[in-house]
Amino acid sequence: MRKFSIVKNYKLFFAITIIFLLVGFGSMIVRGFNLGIDFTGGSIMDLNFQRPVAVAEVRDVLKEHNLGNSIIQLESSDANVKEAKGVLIRTGVIDDEQRRAVMDNLKGKLGEFEIQRVENVGATVGGELIQQAVLAIVLSWFLMIAYITMRFEFKFAIAAIIALIIDVSVTLSYFSLFHMELDSSFVAALLTVVGYSINGTIVIFDRIRENLKIHRRSESLTDMIDNSIWQTMARSIYTVGTSLFAIVAIFLWGGETIRNFSFAMLVGFSSGAYTSTFLAGPLWLFLRGKKAGE
After folding, report:
1. What CA–CA distance (Å, rounded) separates 159 from 136?
2. Cα-atom radius of gyration of the chain, to the nearest Å?
3. Rounded to two decimals, what is the model's pTM?
4. Are 99 and 119 contacting, i.e. CB atoms less than 8 angstroms apart?
5. What is the SS3 assignment for 48?
6. Cβ distance 37 to 50 under 8 Å?
7. What distance in Å separates the CA atoms of residue 168 and residue 191, rounded to the nearest whole number?
8. What is the DSSP track for 203-254?
């Protein structure tokens, strides 16, 4: 039975990618991002009450201090839970005196609690974090171009970087579309996605390089790339499957604190598997000046 040709159906995969990226970029322009306090500045109070409390109870107390618009998250693995002992409160920047007043009021209205974490992040730190994150990602791309060029060839490197840029754009698009909060853990997830995605692409490119050495003139480059992709398909499925299994488990049961981090990993790993399998090979073919079927 003849296997499905990924390269010959490149128009389908390119169209899906372009449509989603256009939607994502549109969302970034119109809606922007829900930047966390790591980027905008603010305060975090992570509290563990002796009894379960509801979001409405906490917000009523915060309203007395003109903090009613604060983000309040219950730390629970159940998304439908109405009350929980663990509460994460994200406010604008407040000084120590105002924070102590808020905590005293919470203790008086809702009962005793243990302080798990208290942090203040200034807007200046947020700006530096954005610059460092962008620099780290761009630097990783240049280093990858150098490595892949030395190990393979420059056209392989360009195809791989285009796939990586798509993965980063897809992850950013999801966070903009769903208006999920971007914090410092998102940067860590994004760098992890870059490393994971390039690994899958390198495996396929390595097989293409090996098959090029024994390539027959009777076999088109399109068929050779398709054969290379299918020869690594089992390995790709096993790797992606085991990785996503762990990430889904973290997303579902890891708690609210790392939910955005695990969601970024989930989206990025899925996108990385897609670009490595369906886009990287055809991109390399076109960079060589060939068309599908040649």
Report:
1. 20
2. 24
3. 0.77
4. no
5. strand
6. no
7. 9
8. HHHHHHHHHHHT--TTS-HHHHHHHHHHHTHHHHHHHHHHHHHHHHHHHHHS
- Calpha distance 35→183 (Å, rounded): 7
3-state secondary structure (DSSP) of residue 46: strand
pLDDT in tens, 168-178: 999 999 999 98
C-alpha 102 chain-centroid distance: 34
Q: Percentages helix, strand, coil for the chain, rounded to the nearest 5?
A: 65, 15, 20
Q: Scan for tokens 């897809």, then name that residue.
A: 170
Q: How many residues does the chain have?
A: 294
Q: Token pair of 12, please? A: 């389908």
pLDDT tens digits, residue range 236-247?
Answer: 899 999 999 999
Q: Which amino acid is at 276?
A: S
Q: What would the DSSP string read from start to end of 76-97?
A: -S-TT-SEEEEEEEEES---HH
Nearest CA to 117 out of 219, 37, 182 is that of 37
